[in-house]
Amino acid sequence: MFLGLDKQDRNKLAVKDNEGNQLTYGELSAEVAMISKLLKPRSIVFILCKNTVGALVGYLGFIEGNAVPLVLCSGIEIGLLDSLLNEYTPAYLWIPSEMVVDFDYPVEFDKYGYSLLRTRNEIYPINDQLQFLMTTSGSTGSPKLVRYKKGNLEANAKNVAKAFGWTVDERPICDLGMQYTMGLNVINTHLYVGATILLTTYNLMSSNFWDYIRDEKATNFTGVPFSYDIFYRLHFEQMDLPYLTTLSEGGGKLTNARFIQLAEYAQKNKKRFIASFGTTETSARMACLPAELALYKPGSIGRAIPEGELFLIDEEGNELIEIEAEGEMCYRGPNVTMGYAINKEELLNNDDFNGEYHTGDLARRDADGCYFVTGRKSRFLKLLSYRVSLDQCERLVQEEFGIECACIGNDHRMDIFITDESKKKYVLEFISKKTNLFKTLFKVFVIDYIPRNDSGKIRYKELHKEPER
Which of 156, 215, 331, 438 is deepest in the core (most CB within 10 A)? Predict the structure, then answer.
């Protein structure tokens, strides 16, 4: 069975959510086996995810039944959902039951607050090795998906669990969405070792979230940089959390100050802080920094996970073999996915990556073989760990408002430059809604003109010098 669910202690609690649902490994295996028979093999199914048992059993059951799920947030922007539905024409939808009224399709099955809908779409040919689909920078409206082949998810689950030292006694608190590569990785790695998954839909800033951690004796938490910003805003370091032994981070770069703060907190309280790095294209994590090095290598993502290899290349694509070097960071391993698709015809494509992925991130390797991400080759940001295309955001604003636009930023904020004062408020609302991200992650500047070179290309470096009106 997928992830070896049927090999675990049948009486051990496998998963629990804050809506009152829970399943032992025996019960979970039975549910997965039953759900696997509901769909026709090799069909595409969209899962609109919440962090609940219902979403989880659907994901596991569909893969077990040889269908191919695409996981999406249940709060996905309607325009993006329509675009994906039109492009990939799924045969089924697995959605929260309260959303059934939004679709004109018959319900074939429902359980744990989720319903299976059969669309009117026909099943079409896809690659025999295709197992799973996830969006990449598509939060801004792109239909681009990452294609996972059979074996990617299980290889990553096995090797990340080994790298982190997860055991059957773990009780991870899972607040990152399972439609997000890091959130799904937390689930997969812990199911692989037979641990107990604690799913939650509670907001990090709510007292319910912290009560859930305490009441359920959660042993580890994985967050993105924004998660830990909230933690410190709430003075979590003063909280009594005796069972929480591991804090893990991924999905973006912490400031060095926050990194050191977490490392010092962990040392003082006899806990572990583990920084990690991953991408959707590598089934999530591909590197992590051992907890014992956290205080000595602030900002480092560490070394490759077992069965993986990190390496650097220069601008000509040649591998840099020096012990200490800097270049584009690349990765080889069994968790490297098949490549991308921008339409359903490309779901037939073979493996484009062939076990090797070039991240587009610039990194430095030190004398101990630890890596430090220093920048990004392409124009993408990671806002709240979601990869967002600066170029695509520019196009969206230009198309919606008919104005010039230029976008720059870092992994903490996107700066949007326009030339029309009257559109400032509306641009902020539009881009926040389009990306499904908080307004506080964007700032709109009004300038006299967008600086360009002779060939018409935007001179982005000059935007930093422009004053805000």
Answer: 156
Q: Which CATH number fits domain 2-375: 2.115.10.20, 3.40.640.10, 3.40.50.12780, 3.90.226.10?
A: 3.40.50.12780
Helix (H, G, I), strand (E, B) or coil at 27: helix
**CA–CA separation, 5 and 458 (whole Å):** 53
Beta carbons of 174 and 198 less than 8 angstroms apart? yes
Give the pTM.
0.83
Residue stretches of the chain with pLDDT short of 50:
137-139, 454-455, 466-469
What pLDDT is attached to residue 457?
64
- CATH code: domain 380-465 is 3.30.300.30
pLDDT at 226: 80
Contact 407, 418 (CB under 8 A): no
Task: Please give the pLDDT value at position 469.
Answer: 46
Three-state SS string over 32-56 comes to HHHHCCCCCCCCEEEEEECCCHHHH
* Domain spans of the chain, in order of start: 2-375, 380-465
